[in-house]
Design brief:
The structure is a single chain. This protein is an alpha/beta fold. The chain has nine helices and seven strands. The protein has a seven-stranded mixed beta sheet with strand order 3-2-1-4-5-7-6, sandwiched between helices. Helix 2 packs parallel to helix 5, helix 3 crosses helix 4 and helix 7 packs antiparallel against helix 8. The relative contact order is 0.16.
Length: 243
């Protein structure tokens, strides 16, 4: 039995678990103060030009489209490709109103079926924690970036902070798991969320993963509110080509 199976859902069934919970997902994240603003903050940290016309952006693990909307908020003229492994989450995303330059693809990061780079920037929100090999996933994403392009990994990381772990456990036990149970009738995915975050990389290990995947200029920033020190943006650059 793997560590993930002891401490959360087996990775292979995570997309199907999101399929089951997709119809409630937007309602639940709307109850999380700062959820959408934090995604917009990570998108702003990509440092995209104000005139986004002609930019190609990738949303890796887009879910119901919250991170896609965050990209649009900072680059309204960009062409955006968004993908996810959960068909039902994608159906929720596609049902929303989007500009003509936004497309959604059903594929896991291990396959990237139909995803064609190069992209000028990538946002990856809450994806790496659910991959069997996060470093390999980052390497695949880097191959889709143009030289000098940037990635913003938006992810939970509490392992390096006793305070962050205490707050995360308290909020999960008192709010997230009970709210998930009341809303959906099943707390399995929300118990998985709690355990998977606790078992995931500390911020130091996560930044090292980006280095190991070949990114340079790796930097971090946290968010505000109760998730300060819990949710982070980790930025990395695909090195420019050398002659």
């Amino acid at each position: 039995m793997t560590a993930m199976e002891r401490n959360g859902l087996p990775r292979a069934v995570v997309p199907s678990a999101f399929d089951t919970e997709a119809r409630w997902y937007d309602r639940l994240v709307a109850a999380n103060p700062g959820y959408h603003e934090h995604l917009r903050l990570s998108a702003r940290r990509l440092g995209l030009p104000s005139d986004a016309g002609g930019l190609r952006l990738l949303d890796a693990g887009c879910g119901t489209g919250a991170s896609t909307a965050a990209l649009l908020s900072v680059a309204p003229g960009a062409r955006i490709t968004a993908f996810d492994a959960s068909a039902e989450m994608l159906a929720r995303a596609r049902a929303k109103v989007w500009p003509a330059g936004v497309e959604f693809l059903h594929t896991p990061v291990e396959e990237l079926a139909g995803v064609r780079g190069p992209f000028d920037a990538i946002i990856s929100a809450y994806l790496l924690r659910n991959l069997a090999d996060p470093t390999a996933g980052l390497r695949r994403l880097r191959t889709l970036l143009r030289p000098g392009g940037r990635i913003a990994v938006h992810e939970y990381s509490v392992r390096d902070s006793r305070r962050a772990r205490w707050i995360w456990n308290a909020v999960c036990a008192g709010v997230i798991i009970p709210l998930g149970k009341v809303t959906t009738g099943d707390a399995t995915l929300y118990r998985h969320l709690r355990r998977s975050v606790l078992e995931f990389d500390g911020l130091g290990s996560l930044t090292q993963r980006l280095h190991d995947a070949g990114f340079t200029d790796v930097r971090t920033g946290s968010v505000h509110g109760w998730q300060k020190g819990i949710v982070h943006t980790v930025l990395g650059t695909n090195p420019p080509e050398t002659s």
